[in-house]
Amino acid sequence: MVLRIFQPGRPGGIAIDAGEASAILPSDTVWIDLLEPSREEERLVELTLGLQVPTREEMAEIEPSSRLYQERGAVFLTANVMSGIEAGDPVSTPVSFVLTPEHLVTVRYADPKPFRSFAAHIQREPSLCGSATMTLIHLLDAIIDRLADTLEVVQSDIDKTSRTIFRRGLQSARRRGRMSNDTLQELLLRIGDDQDLLAKTRDSLASMGRLMSFLSLPHHIREDRELREHVKSLGRDVASLIDHSGFLATNISFLLDASLGLINIEQNAIIKIFSVAAVVFLPPTLVASIYGMNFEHMPELRWLLGYPYALALMVMSAVLPYLFFKRKGWL
Questions:
Q1: How far apart are CA 2 and CA 11, in angstroms?
Q2: Which residues, at least 6 apart from 168, have a Cβ–Cβ distance to it below 8 Å?
């Protein structure tokens, strides 16, 4: 693996092989991006900064004191960031940010899209990488924008699921049709996918909210009033996204209940059909059983119209219960 560095005024990142004996970081380096770093890469960064880079085990800690702290003039921030959304396998992975007055170090073991998009944005606007603090804030902005886009995707899918459940269910009821088992199973799977994606997004938003609250403390960003205001604005954005994610979670819970209710209705309709069929065919079976007995002295046994009479009686005994159920609205 190689680490990438970004410098102010440069169109893009530079890859450095930390395994070379002469490897050294340029003095004007602003952002050091460590993606699945090797021990050589970590050692090179630690020698440059005079700080210990968080290990993968330390990044997995969930205590706020282990994720947000200040040490030897540097601010250590760890938050969960979404990745793998494009591939349909979303995961929430911890990413560490180490902010010093001159450098920003990011340590990650996944490749979320905001990092790639922000690196491409720097190529178009190198001024975004003017300082370590500015780079961190714009990178966090890209991450929060990505989370907002994810919530929009979830909301759009929730709307599609809602239309499928209610509009199609209404049309099926009008045509006296039934939603297929495949359709019902697809609804449940779609709701499950939305819930999984939303849960990971909310986890990422919660960690970003804690990060923004810690970063907005006055002694963490001192050099620029505009940057401090930007951090506060990002904090408000995260708070609003958390509220919106709660609204979407409520909608998903409602759709799940509606889907299960629809399944119960379909099951009850099937059971009702079997129940009515049993009741309708019970009287003809009784008539056929009576006239199928082989007793010698039966009044209708030698009657010329006995057979048509039995058939008519069986038909009448089946039709009358059906008409009764129909009039009561049970069918």
A1: 19
A2: 179, 183
Q: pTM (2 decimals)?
A: 0.78
Q: Which domains are delineated in the chain?
A: 3-267 (3.30.460.20), 268-328 (1.20.58.340)
User: Where do we find the tokens 């994720």?
Assistant: 67
Question: Rg for the chain (alpha carbons), in Å?
Answer: 34
- Strands 91-99 and 104-108, by their bridges, are antiparallel
Query: How confident is the prediction along the chain (331 residues), in pLDDT tens digits per residue?
Result: 557 888 776 656 676 655 554 567 777 888 999 999 888 888 888 888 888 889 889 898 888 888 899 988 899 999 999 998 888 889 999 999 999 988 999 999 999 999 999 988 888 888 888 888 889 999 999 999 999 999 999 999 999 988 888 865 455 444 545 667 777 888 889 999 999 999 999 999 999 999 999 988 877 776 677 888 898 999 999 999 999 999 999 999 999 998 888 888 777 777 877 887 788 888 888 888 887 877 777 777 777 787 888 888 888 888 888 888 777 776 6
